[in-house]
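Entry type: protein chain
Record version: 2
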Amino acid sequence: MRMPSTPVMALILAAAVPLTLPTANAAEVQMTVQNPVVELSTSESVPAAPDTAHVNAGVQTRAPTATEAMRLNAEQMEQVISRLIALGVPRNRIQTSGLNLNAQYQYGGENQPPRFLGYDVTNSVTVKLREMGKIGEVLDALAAAGANNLNGPSFSVEFDGPLKE
């Protein structure tokens, strides 16, 4: 097997040098090569303690009419949001992430029409927490306030500037 020429080898080795975070859009290099080509990909990760946690909290309600289901859901969701604010979570860190209204039916056996059960409303918010020591307290408070759909926490590093240096 014939090795690539020196300029091609230099280009391949230059591509293997790790980049520092954040990675910019990589330049695309076009070249015509008749010899075997080695393609390399690199990535970096830096272990760090998270400074942000996201929790998704929601309320699901059912009522005979769509209007009633929406009203009940709004009341219960207001309790959840009020509880978060009482715990010191700023309003701008509580964001609606979904609202769904669906008719619900129970399907029986053959030759039986579906039976209407009511309307389900699911409403959820995403909460950004910056005090890592309060996550358990917030989750407990959400459940106590009526949140019956909880997801998270998911952790991230929002202030990552020093890690990228």
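Comment: Helices lie at 6-15, 66-86, 135-144, 161-164.
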